[in-house]
Design brief:
- The chain is mainly α.
- It contains 11 helices and no strands.
- Helix 10 crosses helix 11.
- The radius of gyration is 27 Å and the shape is elongated.
- The N and C termini lie far apart (70 Å).
Length: 254
């Protein structure tokens, strides 16, 4: 059911919406009691009480789409309440209305953000802050000063990320380029933080290997050589760790 906020707020007992909105806002318990009496006619109280607050809240996540997100939440909530079998009076009276609305708006904003990101996985004209991506090269200094060198490295990084599996591309950009915390990324992508950490351990060595190829394609051979040496050392460490685990396992079996 698609309608505007004004259509959700019909006149009640001869009181138009402008007059009703001037009356003191009822608390949630009163709203719920009135919804039980008449779900359709009294839903306007939900809109009057929460609409502006929800829009302000939504704008902390999205800007242009904030009002659309709130309208969709109001619309879906109104429609749900009309199903008396799914929403009996007892459930309405026990309903945490405020938490429901704010959580629904937050989820709606997350969907808007994910949709926008899926349409453009990687920025095309945004400069990469070089100090944030030194870990990709396994160095703590040596960030190029010349603009053309930085541009070549940015191209290499973007191309390397684009060659990752699609499921890892957003995480790679947000974590390894923008330097965002896992908790923030989890909220943005609607995923579990621990799952993101596991995903990072899976794709990061692959990303470095892809970056090595792209650096050579861009003519950054010196930086590629340095990264290649690092990858060889890491691989040697992994080989030694595997041997040690096998030896420990063999000793336990004896």
């Amino acid at each position: 059911m698609d309608f505007t906020a004004s259509e959700m707020m019909p006149d009640v007992e001869g009181v138009n919406m402008k007059e009703r909105s001037k009356q003191p806002e009822p608390d949630d318990s009163e709203i719920l009691r009135l919804l039980v009496e008449d779900r359709k006619e009294n839903f306007d109280l939900v809109v009057i009480t929460y609409n502006n607050r929800l829009i302000a809240f939504a704008r902390t996540f999205v800007k242009d789409e904030a009002e659309d997100v709130v309208q969709e939440v109001m619309s879906s909530t109104y429609s749900a309440l009309q199903n008396e079998q799914a929403w009996p009076s007892e459930r309405i009276l026990e309903w945490d209305l405020c938490n429901w609305l704010f959580k629904s708006v937050k989820n709606g904003c997350s969907r808007v953000w994910r949709t926008a990101k899926s349409q453009e996985i990687l920025p095309t004209d945004e400069d990469i802050e070089m100090s944030r991506i030194s870990h990709l090269f396994a160095i703590s200094d040596g960030i190029p000063e010349k603009v053309f060198e930085r541009k070549k490295i940015q191209v290499a990084i973007k191309r390397a990320i684009e060659r990752l599996q699609l499921r890892y591309q957003k995480l790679a950009w947000l974590r390894d380029v923008e330097g965002r915390r896992y908790e923030e990324i989890a909220q943005m992508l609607g995923k579990n933080g621990n799952t993101l950490r596991v995903d990072h351990t899976h794709y990061f060595p692959v990303l470095q290997a892809l970056l090595l190829v792209e650096l050579r394609n861009c003519g950054e051979d010196e930086r590629a050589d340095s990264l290649e040496e690092h990858l060889k050392r890491e691989e040697q460490k992994n080989v030694e760790k595997r041997k040690k685990r096998e030896q420990e396992k063999g000793g336990q079996e004896e």
